[in-house]
Amino acid sequence: MAWGGIAHDRVNDLLILPVNNLAAEVRLIARDTVDTERKAGRLSGDFEYHPQTGTAYGMVRRFLIGPKTHLPCTPPPWALLQP
Questions:
Q1: What are the distances in angstroms from CA 13 to CA 16, 55, 57, 80, 83?
Q2: What does the alpha-carbon distance between residue 75 and residue 38 come to, in Å, rounded to a whole number?
Q3: Is 18 in contact with 81 (CB distance < 8 Å)?
Q4: Spatial CA neighbour of 61 closest among 76, 51, 75
Q5: CA nearest 31: which of 61, 60, 56, 59?
Q6: Quick check: 65 and 46 in contact, CB under 8 A?
């Protein structure tokens, strides 16, 4: 599920939410190794870093994108509204 909002249809008792369908590489890294990982170049380029405040780990991720097409490697549709 995506972190976006949801909608509730009270008449039909449905919960509708956005769903992403994208392949990604995701890693958790110990907070005390973030500087070492950056200096080694493992948190650069296509990777997004999210510190995950309040936890012992940060998260890095990158979506898998085709080098020639610059499109996601996952076949479409890349997102849906799921009832």
A1: 10, 36, 38, 19, 10
A2: 32
A3: yes
A4: 51
A5: 56
A6: yes
> Hey, CA dihedral for 12, 18, 19, 21, is it positive or negative?
positive
| pLDDT 10s digits, 10-49 | 999 988 888 888 999 998 989 888 778 878 887 777 888 8
Which pair of structure tokens corresponds to residue 50? 């999210």
So what's the pLDDT on residue 1?
A: 47
What is the C-alpha to C-alpha distance for residues 77 and 71, in angstroms, rounded to an integer? 12
As given in the structure block, the two tokens for residue 23 are: 């392949």
Task: Please report where in the chains the tokens 């890693």 appear, as a residue.
Answer: 27
Find the largest Cα–Cα distance for the chain: 55
Tokens 């999210």 belong to which residue? 50
pTM of the model: 0.64
What percentage of the chain carries pLDDT values higher than 90?
A: 28
